[in-house]
Write a structure and sequence with these properties.
The chain is an alpha/beta fold and about 375 residues long. It folds into 2 domains: about 30-45 and about 270-360, Aspartate Aminotransferase, domain 1, CATH 3.90.1150.10; about 50-265, Aspartate Aminotransferase, domain 2 (3-Layer(aba) Sandwich), CATH 3.40.640. It is built from 13 helices and 12 strands. A 7-stranded mixed β-sheet has the order 2-8-7-6-5-3-4, with helices on both faces. The longest helix is centred in the C-terminal third of the chain and has 20 residues, at about 270-290.
Length: about 375
């Protein structure tokens, strides 16, 4: 395509699309010699009975998946004690977030999120031509209900709350969230991607409040990040309209089969969840001994302030030189933090040993690792 033709095509893009840069080709995924602790995956294989369901589904690869995800939605309804018309299933909860943004936002509208939060929400708002309002937690990490109701977020079409929050791992008591939902007549989207590692959840509230949508995913606590299975729960009228917006055949046969099997065998993950909670405590203590300041987490990751002297990006590069991936964030106030997913014991031992070696190199502490 000539430059003139290209410029003509680019000029035809919508105003929103013109704001987006073309993505570069990217880089290859790390090989098995790397330890990947940057995207909050659950590091364990599927239980054997669930793996069998995935393999069996591949034998039906020539068929389109079931329309409207009905069997998967029925399985979720049975597992969580709701009606099937209160459930929407998606290609991960990220797809469902996109459906919600398309359904509720028009150019010029606004949406609010607690900050710091899941950055993908900013892009979703921009794609709808909507204003994105970020509200900081109170100093004690409690929910600033008055600000959300009457402050900068007062005109937002809906409010996104992640509980536990990403990237901080902090948790807001469900009673506080109910207080916000009860006082508001706007939609509250409660993203519970990490809730299986937390002390309680807010799913029971959907039968009390028609303005609440609860999102869940099987990616984190059920080790299916690569298979993409998520759910939304809410009032049948809202759920039904959201389902009508989804792409036809939005999920695949393997996702259907694995999702149904996971929901039927959640008890098979008990040891998995115990391991993550145990390692979360162990790594928190070990990092604290190395001079990190770790935010108490209710998720499968830790957000830690690095020792004085270098910022989070420096530490990310130092770990990368030892073939360990951790996450950092550009958000204001997070420059001196790294986020570390909880992996296997062997992975976390390697991470702590690497942290100790880096500490010794920069003379920050005497490290036992």
């Amino acid at each position: 395509m000539s430059d003139a033709k290209l410029q003509s095509v680019l000029a035809s893009l919508s105003q929103v699309a013109r704001q987006l840069d073309a993505l570069p080709s990217g880089r290859p995924a790390p090989d098995s010699n790397w330890i990947k602790l940057d995207t909050n995956e659950n590091p364990f294989p599927l239980p054997k009975i669930i793996m069998q369901s995935a393999i069996a589904a591949l034998e039906r690869q020539y068929l389109y998946p079931e329309d409207d995800n009905i069997s998967l939605r029925e399985a979720a309804a049975n597992a969580y004690g709701v009606s099937v018309d209160q459930v929407i299933a998606g290609n991960g909860s990220s797809e469902l977030l996109g459906v919600i943004y398309r359904a509720f936002l028009a150019p010029g509208d606004s949406v609010a999120m607690m900050s710091p939060g899941f950055s993908f929400n900013r892009k979703l708002a921009m794609l709808q031509g909507a204003q994105f309002v970020e509200i900081e937690f109170d100093e004690d990490q409690s929910l600033p209900i008055e600000q959300l109701l009457f402050g900068p977020a007062k005109n937002a079409k809906f409010i996104i709350l992640a509980n536990p929050n990403n990237p901080t791992g902090t948790f807001v008591p469900v009673a506080d969230i109910e207080g916000l939902v009860a006082k508001s007549d706007r939609l509250i989207v409660l993203d519970e991607a990490y809730v299986d590692f937390a002390p309680e959840n807010g799913l029971r509230l959907i039968n009390r409040y028609s303005n609440l949508l609860v999102l869940r995913t099987l990616s984190k606590s059920y080790a299916t990040a690569g298979i993409r299975v998520g759910f939304g729960f809410g009032h049948p009228e809202i759920i039904g309209r959201l389902r009508n917006i989804q792409n036809v055949f939005n999920m695949n046969v393997v996702g259907h089969a694995v999702g149904i099997s996971v929901l039927a065998h959640r008890a098979a993950y008990a040891d998995n969840h115990r391991h993550i909670r145990h390692e979360r405590r162990r790594v928190t203590l070990a990092l604290s001994q190395l001079g990190f300041s770790v935010i108490p987490s209710h998720a499968n990751f830790l957000l830690a302030r690095v020792p004085t002297g270098q910022d989070g990006s420096w530490w990310q590069s130092a770990f990368a030189r030892q073939k360990i991936l951790v996450a950092v964030f550009p958000d204001k106030g997070l420059e001196n933090y790294i986020r570390v997913s909880i992996g296997t014991k062997e992975q976390m031992d390697a991470f702590l040993c690497a942290a100790g070696r880096i500490c010794r190199i920069v003379n920050m502490s005497i490290c036992p690792y």
